């Protein structure tokens, strides 16, 4: 069998028709590139920037709310304490001054009616002074305020007592003495009462000024914080907008369009139109376009290779069919040769039998040697020819056996 295979492989190329079309060079397979997913994704970056802006705005809102709460507290404190106290001090000073003036008017009255009106007003002022001083003292809550208020009730009582005595002189018709009493005692007593009121008024004014300064400072701070926050948020929004613009440039188009193109390419539509912006060479859309072009070239190469493989397969099938036909013909020829060799073997056996009979005849005719010498020489010559034929037959048989061994027949 090995000799048969070597014999077949040694046939000329003209006997085997098998042509294979050369296919284009296949692309070299490279190891896939592992792309690690970034932990800080685009959505996380946008969310972080938005969260920072929102946190900054919330922080500013809380700070402004606290400052406004302090401003409100100071204004409410001023409105609840300083302003009413200043109003009460002003009203006390005004009524004390009016009471002393009414004493003078009663002294200078030209008729009893004028004097009675002035005296009646003095009595009303006395009652009002007592009520206002009581309210004023009730609003004094701190130790400093109580210490400032402590001498005022006694000074008011002293002033009322002196004024009452002055009014008694007026009612007795002793106006000259009443005027001298007014100048010497009533007015000095009034001034002694007005002194602590003026001091408390100055203190309350200082407290009011401090509160107003604090309110102004807190308002300015709130304004500055708001302005700074607006500027910071504006800058943050500008940076955010710039980052969004940068991301859009890196994307190359709207995300919806990117999704549409990616879906089309994934579905096998390699003819989809991908438009790029002017100068765009490294965006995601540009990379999608490059990927589409590479895929299109790869698919075309695969199609060309498939066509080449199909043609080569067809030619190989045709060559195999031709080879099978030739092999069948060779097998038939070998069968015919084997039949011929069998017939040749039969002829040789017959010749051998004939030789045996001739030998017997030669022995039988040995007595006739001398007589048949001439015939013996002819027989010898015939045997020599037969021997040569036998040798040739033996060589033919050896060749046939070699062919039989090679063809496994």
Verbal overview:
With about 400 residues, the protein is mainly alpha-helical. About 80% of the residues lie in helices and about 0% in strands. It is built from nine helices and no strands. The chain has helices spanning about 1-10, 40-110, 110-140, 145-150, 150-170, 175-250, 255-265, 285-365, 375-405. Helix 5 packs antiparallel against helix 6 (about 175-250). The longest helix is centred in the last third of the chain and has 81 residues, at about 285-365. It is rod-shaped. Residues about 1-30 have low confidence and may be disordered.
Secondary structure topology:
Blueprint: H1 2-9, H2 42-108, H3 112-138, H4 143-149, H5 152-171, H6 175-251, H7 255-266, H8 284-364, H9 373-407
Helix pairs in contact: 2-3, 2-5, 2-6, 3-5, 5-6, 7-8, 8-9
Summarize the main sheet.
none
Helix content: over 70%
Count of extended strands: 0
Average residue pLDDT = 77
Radius of gyration, whole Å: 70 Å
Keywords:
disordered N terminus, 409 residues, mainly alpha
